[in-house]
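PROTEIN DESIGN WORKSHEET
SECTION A - STRUCTURE
LENGTH: 260
TOKENS:
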């Protein structure tokens, strides 16, 4: 079984490249973040026509939004309000192999890494804190995927020196995410298959017309798995060519393969 995760940055604006992903890579399950569509306007029929008839949606008009689209049956859907304000940033479901799938969109956190002057940064840290408390009591094998909006390792950004005080790579965010990792012993699938310090980016700013020229990327998108299920993950890939498709998202898809 293959599971893909992609911050699509408005699903309705990017249906052609979503369809291309489905046809070229054919994941069994697709997790989308930042769909920017309330449930009643989400293009559900589009995905049904492609064979993704099992759908779990948590949408919001114009902002945020997550979705799980699947060719295989999903069970026990849940949605956590880790933002604590009703924003649509999480949806989860049970995979038929007995692994829970959690799809999350962590807040970006604004521009200033100081919660005393930037409420958005505080909300981001609190979001990760709520995830951590949830994770501490987690007992079932789980795969959590999505846009974490944190690049935790020095090699997860194009320049640690340039970005050390930039939101997504600050010490306080990295410390918060590491506390989340330790709370369940999560295995970072990306760095399991692409060991540090190898280059592994998933996001490039729209400010650069050609992301390949200066390659100022960051690894903001992640797939982490419970230790009990880590051996079932047999492959992982970052589909970087998608960043050069027509009208791309600034993120690229991740895909992992699970032995069931």
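SECTION B - SEQUENCE
RESIDUE ASSIGNMENT:
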């Amino acid at each position: 079984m293959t599971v893909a995760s992609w911050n699509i940055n408005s699903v309705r604006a990017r249906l052609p490249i979503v369809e291309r992903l489905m046809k070229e890579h054919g994941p069994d399950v697709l997790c989308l973040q930042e769909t920017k569509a309330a449930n009643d306007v989400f293009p559900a029929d589009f995905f049904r026509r492609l064979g993704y008839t099992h759908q779990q949606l948590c949408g919001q008009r114009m902002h945020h939004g997550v979705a799980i689209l699947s060719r295989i049956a999903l069970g026990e859907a849940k949605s956590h309000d880790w933002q604590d304000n009703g924003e649509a940033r999480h949806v989860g479901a049970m995979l038929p192999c007995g692994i829970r799938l959690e799809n999350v969109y962590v807040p970006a956190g604004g521009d200033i890494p100081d919660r005393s002057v930037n409420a958005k940064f505080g909300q981001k840290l609190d979001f990760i804190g709520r995830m951590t408390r949830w994770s501490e009591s987690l007992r079932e094998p789980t795969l959590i995927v999505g846009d974490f909006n944190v690049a935790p390792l020095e090699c997860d950004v194009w320049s640690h020196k340039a970005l050390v005080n930039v939101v997504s790579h600050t010490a306080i965010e990295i410390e918060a995410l590491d506390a989340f990792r330790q709370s369940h012993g999560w295995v970072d699938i990306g760095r399991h298959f692409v060991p540090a310090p190898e280059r592994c980016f998933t996001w490039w700013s729209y400010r650069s017309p050609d992301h390949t020229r200066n390659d100022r990327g960051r690894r903001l998108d992640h797939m982490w798995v419970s230790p009990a299920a880590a051996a079932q993950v047999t492959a992982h890939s970052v589909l970087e060519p998608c960043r050069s498709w027509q009208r791309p998202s600034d993120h690229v898809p991740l895909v992992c393969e699970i032995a069931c």
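SECTION C - NOTES
The longest strand covers residues 2-7.
The radius of gyration is 17 Å.
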